[in-house]
Automatic annotation (TrEMBL):
A GO molecular-function descriptor: metal ion transmembrane transporter activity
Protein's recorded name: GDT1 family protein
Organism in which the protein naturally occurs: Paracidovorax wautersii
InterPro entries for the chain: GDT1-like (IPR001727)
TM spans (from-to): 38-60, 67-85, 132-154, 166-185
Domain of life: Bacteria
Length: 188
C-alpha cells in the first residue's frame, strides 16, 4: 500500500503546474466536453505509466542493488531540482488534429506530452524503487487524475487559487527526502 500512496501523492504534486495540466486546461477550453477529455487523460496516462512502470521494473533486473540505490537516489535528487523549473505549454502540444474527436485528440496529445515528462520519469523511478509494478502504476495514474480532472471541470478558477510555486517546492522537498533516503538505506 505504501507504493500506491507514495506514488499517488508524488505524481499529484508533481503534476501541479506541469505542461500536461496546462494541456488539460487548453483541451477543456477548446472542446468544452469534460467527460471525453477526462476519459482520454485516464487512458493515455494508464498506457504511458504502464510502459514507464515496466521500464522501472526491468531496470531492477539488470542492475545490482548498489548501482540501483545510487541511481535512484541521484535521480530523485535531480527530480527535486527539476520540480523547481516551471513548465510551459508549447502551442504545438495543444494543436493536435481534432479529426480523432475529443477523446482521441486527448489520448494522443496527452500521451505525447507525457513522454519524458517529470511524472513519467517519476513512475520509472518509483517502479524501480518499490518493485510493486501494479501499485505504482495505479498510484501514478490516480495522481494524474487527481491533478488533471479538476482542471478539466473547474478550469481557470483552480489555476488562480492554487499557489503553484508552493506546490513545486513541496514536491521538490519530497523528491529530495526520497533521494537522501535511497542513498542512505541499502535496497533489499
Amino acid at each position: 500500500m505504501e507504493a500506491f500512496f507514495v506514488s499517488t501523492a508524488i505524481v499529484a504534486l508533481a503534476e501541479m503546474g506541469d505542461k500536461t495540466q496546462l494541456l488539460s486546461l487548453v483541451l477543456a477550453a477548446r472542446f468544452r466536453r469534460p467527460w471525453p477529455i477526462v476519459l482520454g487523460i485516464f487512458v493515455s496516462t494508464l498506457a504511458n505509466h504502464a510502459l514507464a512502470g515496466a521500464v522501472g521494473a526491468w531496470v531492477t533486473t539488470v542492475v545490482g542493488p548498489n548501482v540501483l540505490r545510487w541511481g535512484l537516489g541521484l535521480s530523485f535528487i535531480a527530480m527535486a531540482v527539476w520540480m523547481l523549473i516551471p513548465d510551459k505549454l508549447d502551442e504545438d502540444d495543444a494543436a493536435a488534429t481534432p479529426r480523432w474527436g475529443v477523446f482521441g485528440t486527448t489520448v494522443v496529445a496527452f500521451f505525447l506530452a507525457e513522454m519524458g515528462d517529470k511524472t513519467q520519469v517519476a513512475t520509472v523511478m518509483l517502479a524501480a524503487q518499490y518493485s510493486a509494478y501494479f501499485a505504482v502504476v495505479a498510484g501514478t495514474t490516480l495522481g494524474m487524475m487527481l491533478a488533471n480532472a479538476p482542471v478539466v471541470w473547474l478550469g481557470e478558477r483552480i489555476t488562480r487559487r492554487v499557489p503553484i510555486r508552493a506546490v513545486h517546492v513541496v514536491s521538490a522537498v519530497i523528491f529530495l527526502v526520497l533521494g537522501v533516503l535511497a542513498l542512505l538505506h541499502p535496497m533489499g
